[in-house]
Design a protein that fits this description.
281 residues; alpha/beta; seven-stranded mixed sheet; 5 helices; Metallo-beta-lactamase, Chain A; single chain
């Protein structure tokens, strides 16, 4: 599978000179499976330039859109994803139980339809809800996708993609803490992430910042690294960067994690996710 980052930022898009390296768009990743099927995870502002590429290159847009949860920074790019206005587009939606309600709410609401000039029913694309991942694995050809609950306000889902002997885990907006409810404890995520070739995980805060942000539903970089080490992940990509985090700070956080891993005598590869970067498993 081939993975590309179109948005790596959390909370709000932050374009500008301080976010050139790691990106300013909110959450969106593109996954191309070996079978030729395409998966998008989340529809933050990063989905807009992805849609522009699809239109410019006249790509056939038949995708699975997996939504981790219904918070605005993970949905706000969807109305500007140009393929939704093309009748040839086919979108199969799955993920958090409220995902279709959330997508509709962008276009249709009970406060006078003041947020967007187009109604959901006016979109030309064929958009369907699968409702698989809340009840068990989703299989796309030879790829199996499993889900795990997120420890985050209003909940959500993290995803594990198994294609042959390759394993990718994507968990964003997730607070790693021993105070979490059953099913969302650190040991639950260790089992879910076990032997991942690549683990992409929320690391919005530093250890110094996290005490003031308990209950926000995000992790600090040290806790994220601890998860990766205990799960024996081969590579860790820090994700959901704080909107105030500058490129230089993210580089320092990555170096800090590398130093901790070295002291643990681990050979895990560590980096902060960069908008526009891609890798192949």
């Amino acid at each position: 599978m081939k993975v590309k980052f179109w948005g790596t930022r959390g909370s709000i898009a932050v374009p500008g000179k301080d976010t050139i390296i790691y990106g300013g768009n909110t959450c969106c990743i593109e996954i191309d499976l070996e079978c030729g099927k395409k998966i998008l995870v989340d529809a933050g502002t990063g989905i807009r330039p992805l849609g522009d590429r699809m239109i410019t290159q006249e790509e056939k847009v038949e995708i699975h859109l997996l939504l981790t949860h219904a918070h605005w920074d993970h949905l706000q790019g969807f109305p500007f994803f140009d393929p939704i206005f093309n009748p040839a587009t086919k979108i199969l939606v799955d993920g958090t139980p409220t995902c279709m309600k959330a997508l509709r709410a962008i276009f249709e609401n009970n406060v006078g339809d003041i947020f967007f000039p187009v109604r959901f029913g006016e979109l030309k694309a064929r958009i369907s809800y699968l409702d698989k991942l809340c009840h068990g694995p989703l299989k796309i050809e030879d790829t199996i996708i499993d889900a795990i609950p997120l420890h985050h306000p209003q909940g959500g889902l993290g995803f594990r993609f198994q294609e042959g002997n390759k394993r990718l885990v994507f968990i964003t907006d997730n607070e790693l803490t021993e105070d979490a409810p059953a099913g969302t404890l650190p040991e639950d995520y260790v089992r879910f992430c076990k032997d991942a070739d690549v683990l992409i995980h929320d690391s919005q805060f530093t250890p110094e910042e996290i005490p003031k942000h308990r209950g926000w539903g995000h992790s600090d970089c040290a806790s994220t690294l601890d998860l990766a080490l205990k799960a024996h992940a081969k590579r860790l990509l820090l994700f959901h960067h704080a909107p105030s985090r500058k490129d230089s700070e993210l580089t320092s956080i990555t170096a800090r994690c590398e130093e901790i891993a070295a002291k643990s005598r681990s050979d895990i590869m560590i980096d902060a996710a960069k908008e526009g970067s891609e890798f192949t498993l």
